[in-house]
Amino acid sequence: MQRKHIISLCILLCALAVASGLAGCAQPEQAEGSVPLTGSASAGLILLDGQSGGYYVLAVIDQSRADRAGIEAGDTLLTLNSQSPADLTALDAFFSTQQQPCVITIQRKGKTLDIHLPAP
């Protein structure tokens, strides 16, 4: 693994740890009152369950596939290939097994955009 990818993965893991700590998570399973959170090192995204029809992009790893595709922190991920993900676990599974390019529909500042995410 290239050094920049290891650094990006470390940043992703640190952000997940901080966000989990801020949400009051003391255990890996979701604690009552905690914020559902997932990260995809392969795509370069850290997502929060927006619980209102989308997944909030908390952070995008610099130079990741998501960054190069134009996804930004603050976007709301709505669909993957025109399908609404069931939950954060489904999102994580999608990104970790993705072998083909996909279209991610996001909402940014009130506008709906289709972003083409390249294959890994």
List strands and helices in order, with pairings.
Elements: H1 3-22, E1 37-40, E2 45-49, E3 55-60, H2 65-69, E4 76-80, H3 88-97, E5 102-108, E6 111-117
Antiparallel strand pairs: 1-2, 2-3, 3-4, 4-5, 5-6
Explain what the structure shows:
The protein is built from 3 helices and 6 strands. The chain has 120 residues and is an alpha+beta fold. It has helices spanning 3-22, 65-69, 88-97, and strands at residues 37-40, 45-49, 55-60, 76-80, 102-108, 111-117. The chain is globular and about 30 Å long. Residues 18-34 have low confidence and may be disordered.
What form results from the Cα inertia axes?
A: globular
Low-pLDDT ranges: 18-34
Kindly name the structural category: alpha+beta
| Gap between N and C termini | 13 Å
Instruction: Round the Cα radius of gyration to an integer and report it.
Output: 14 Å
Q: Sheet bearing the most strands, described?
A: 6 strands, antiparallel
**How many beta-strand segments?**
6
Sheet with the most strands: spatial strand order: 1-2-3-4-5-6
Share of helix, binned: 25-40%
Brief summary:
This protein is an alpha+beta fold and about 120 residues long. It is built from three helices and six strands. It is about 30% helix and about 30% strand.
Keywords:
single chain; 120 residues; alpha+beta; globular
